[in-house]
Amino acid sequence: MISNGAGTLVQAMDLFEAYGLEVMPLSAESVEKLAAVYPSFYLAQNPIDVTGSATSADYEVGIRVLLEDPNVDLVMPWFVFEDSALEPGIVEVVGRLSREYRRPILCGTMGGAYAQALARAIEAQGVPVYDSVQDWVVAARVLAP
User: Fold this and answer.
1) What does the angle CA 46 – CA 47 – CA 49 come to, to the nearest 5 degrees?
2) Across the strands, what pairs with 3?
3) What is the pLDDT of residues 19-73, one digit of tens each?
4) Alpha carbon distance 59, 48 (integer Å)
5) Could you tell me which of 26, 32, 19, 131 has the C-alpha nearest to residue 73?
6) Considering only the top CATH level, what class is 2-143?
7) Domain coordinates in residue numbering, the chain
8) What is the value of pTM for the model shown?
9) Residue 127 · residue 100 · CB < 8 Å
10) How far apart are CA 59 and CA 117, in angstroms?
11) Is residue 78 within 8 Å of residue 8, measured between CB atoms?
12) Cβ neighbours, 10 Å, residue 7
């Protein structure tokens, strides 16, 4: 998982056990890649917390590392769009990474009209977006090996 809103990550992790899911630790190589790029106040492990200052580039690094890590079966980005440094470029990033890696990416966001518009744009890229943490986790359960 990766998010610019840690509260959602905590909610999801609380639901993981009930749904038989695990947050797997990242390989040492993945943690090193993240630590080499991210500022020290980002949490460079699984889940990845890129804080409210995250940009599309920060998400791109994190999602790519998750997609390449052998311990990760699917990638779950959650986006907080309101009052955030996260710009609409995230739509193209998620679509491109989804096509490049062909591994499951399940996105989540909730919020007003702006968040809903970006969610629809991500879905137009062929990547599902959930507007509740529980639905996001249930979808992960369905796709998990």
Assistant:
1) 125
2) 49, 78
3) 999 999 999 999 999 999 999 999 999 999 999 999 999 999 999 999 999 999 9
4) 9
5) 26
6) alpha beta
7) 2-143
8) 0.95
9) no
10) 19
11) yes
12) 11
